Amino acid sequence: MTIAVYPGSFDPLTYGHLDIIQRSSKVVDHLIVAVLHNAQKQPLFSVDERKALISEVVSGMKNVEVDSFDGLLVDYVRERNADVIVRGLRAITDFEYELQLASINRKMNPDAETLFMMTNNQYSFLSSKMVKEVAKYGADVSDLVPPPVEAALRNKFGFQ
Known about the structure:
Elements: E1 3-8, H1 15-24, E2 30-36, H2 47-57, E3 64-69, H3 73-79, E4 84-89, H4 92-108, E5 113-118, H5 128-136, H6 147-156
Parallel strand pairs: 1-2, 1-4, 2-3, 4-5
Protein name: Phosphopantetheine adenylyltransferase
Subunit structure: Homohexamer.
Pfam families: CTP_transf_like
């Protein structure tokens, strides 16, 4: 059984993230979407809020689990007995950084492979940071994030 971890901040989950979740869940037996708790960042949504939103969006995907972690990804991967780390790439600019991460992860845990997946072209420009910036001004983000996330963003920024 192949277990994969798709780590990220997911603050908030975008259609780009969802694209990677849907596609990677088809190539592994079990996919864990792991929300990173990073004490150095000030997220818009708490870890619990992000987990709840992702869980709602992926509720129909039977082999997808939503969890959270802090600390080193390789330790979490080892703890969950995962074989694969899934990383999404939007553009060539992401590759250099992701290659560095994959290399250090491989050095620290040679048993875990990194699977790079290119995001669908229609989402190649999309980032959580961009979504938050657009949503902050009340602009329409319905083509950028799933409906539950859109509602949560409107609520966070006071747009009903």
